[in-house]
Amino acid sequence: MDLFTKTGAVKLRSHLDKYLVADDDRKTARQIRNGAAARARWSVEPVEGRADLVRLRSCHGRYLAASDEPFLLGMTGKKVLQALPGEGPSSSWTLEWEPIRDGFQVKLRSWCGKYLRANGGPPPWRNSVTHNDPLAGGTQNWVLWDVEAVAGSADWEAPDEYSSAYSSFSSSVGGRDDDVAARSEVVSPTAVAVAPSKMEIKQWFPSMSGIARAQGEEAKKAAAIDQVVEGLSLLEDAVGKISKGKPFFGGDTIGFLDIALGCFLGWVRVTERTQGLKLLDQAKIPGLAKWAERFCADSAVKGVMPETEKLAEFAKLIMAKFRAPPPQ
């Protein structure tokens, strides 16, 4: 309990090295790898008259709730949601959790004696969070969580890798006499630091190409898709924080960060078409999807953005070379 009472906010990291987050739909909770996302922060609130219980409030102002609704029919796990007191079937006690220390970790026991559990495996279990009866055996540690204290209002500072990457990019683009570079606003390294560090573009793009490379290997393909979707979710957070409601990362006009991310939109479209996926889904990542539309429709971009059909043909050549046996 002292792990919670000594700090005003925490992050909870599961046995899968993923963080408990509050989804932007303000209803669900799940796990992602990036602990820098605002959605991974949970404010700790005491329960009046019960020193052994806490409530965990998300960045959306809603509480982590242990519902009585089955995660899957016929299975023992119950859904863990975001809710408010008195909202639907969410009585106040469904929002209360009892932290139980287990060595350097904690278990979080719900109102009905079940424990907050981080699930793994194939969909729909992958990245899901439920509350379950305690189990022995291989899944026993699924209910154990590492608690990380969160500083109250510390300002972001740009890590060295962001500063150097930004400097290199601005040096290569800043001297170009084209429309985009001429009217680009500089996005400061501090703003770029808001973008999550665990899913940098250099990690995210190989995951996207890994979808195509995993032809016939469904487990690898599913893992690559999962990483790409997670990366897009992090970028959804970033576009809201950095643009501050304006059309682009750079503000009212395209900036360097818009260019850096926009370079990958052609490959996103190719992946969607060739793999039958919907990555830029307006229902799930509306901010990023609308940003992509605005970026591609900009007069400075239209003439240089490669056509999806031609890029798809080029991708086929690359993959054929990749799959070809090595020369004897």
TrEMBL record:
CDD domains: beta-trefoil_FSCN_ACP-like, GST_C_Tau
Annotated EC: 2.5.1.18
PROSITE patterns in alphabetical order: GST_CTER
Signal peptide (residue range): none
Leading EC class: transferase
Domain of life: Eukaryota
One matching Pfam family: DUF569
Residue ranges of domain GST C-terminal in the record: 179-314
Reactions that this protein is recorded to catalyse: RX + glutathione = an S-substituted glutathione + a halide anion + H(+)
UniProt entry tagged with the keyword Cytoplasm: no
Any one GO molecular function term: glutathione transferase activity
InterPro entries the record matches: Actin-crosslinking (IPR008999), DUF569 (IPR007679), Glutathione-S-Trfase_C-like (IPR010987), Glutathione-S-Trfase_C_sf (IPR036282), GST_C_Tau (IPR045074)
A biological process from GO: toxin catabolic process
Regions crossing the membrane: none
Record's keyword terms, sorted: Detoxification, Transferase
Family designation: Belongs to the GST superfamily. Tau family.
Name of the molecule in the record: glutathione transferase
Originating organism: Eucalyptus globulus (Tasmanian blue gum)
